[in-house]
Specification:
Helix content is about 20%, strand content about 25%. It is an alpha+beta fold and about 190 residues long. The strands form two sheets. A six-stranded antiparallel beta sheet has the order 1-2-3-9-4-7, with no helix packed on it. A three-stranded antiparallel beta sheet has the order 6-5-8, with no helix packed on it. Helix 2 crosses helix 3 and helix 2 (about 30-35) packs across helix 4 (about 55-60). The chain is elongated. The protein starts with 12 loop residues before the first helix and ends with a strand.
Length: about 190
């Protein structure tokens, strides 16, 4: 049952209610109990199986609690993006080192994925890096010198590294060709 007023097609009442309910940490059952309606009523509204009257919607929103005007003024967050084109990767490096990050803001995320490119002779810096978490990577092309604590290895295409990031570490491109790496670290550290 859908409304027939102008602009009704633009409002997804079910998605909006689900967003507000989850934002407040309420299950369907908890919201139904607070609003004094059947559990199935919340489910039907959220699946757009029924379009409640203004009075019924107000009773449900009182259980959140949120007013009608605030409810309709909210813009539900878009679902997290899952796929990225090459041109959508965010550049967070500079100079002779490129770090192209998958995803924009990593706020609330626990994993950072990078496509790294080191020009010949470029490095992560003279001072070894240390931070909490773990990191790993696979060399796609070129040669990368990876130093972890007192160990140092030169890795080529197909070779990989994986270590606890609190161990002092450093990266440097060796050889005449750029080095490309796909890496991941948790938690995000750049």
């Amino acid at each position: 049952m859908r409304g027939s007023g102008a602009g009704d097609a633009e409002v997804d009442l079910g998605a909006r209610l689900r967003y507000v309910r989850r934002l407040r940490g309420l299950s369907q059952r908890a919201l139904a109990k607070k609003a004094g309606v059947a559990n199935s009523a919340i489910s039907l509204i959220e699946s757009n199986g029924v379009n409640p009257s203004v009075g019924a919607l107000k009773r449900i929103l009182d259980g959140v609690p949120i007013g009608l005007s605030e409810f309709f003024a909210l813009t539900p967050a878009a679902p997290p993006k899952a796929f990225y084109q090459a041109e959508e990767l965010s550049e967070i490096g500079r100079g002779k080192v490129s770090y192209r990050q998958v995803g924009g803001s990593l706020s609330g995320r626990s994993l950072q994925i990078l496509k790294e490119r080191y020009e010949p002779g470029a490095s992560s810096g003279r001072v070894p890096l240390t931070h909490e978490g773990e990191e790993g990577g696979i060399i796609l092309s070129g040669r990368l010198e990876v130093s972890v604590d007192d160990e140092r290895r030169i890795l080529g295409p197909g070779d990989a590294y994986y270590f606890e990031s609190r161990r002092p570490h450093r990266f440097r491109c060796v050889g005449p060709a750029p080095c490309e790496v796909v890496s991941a670290c948790t938690p995000p550290s750049f």
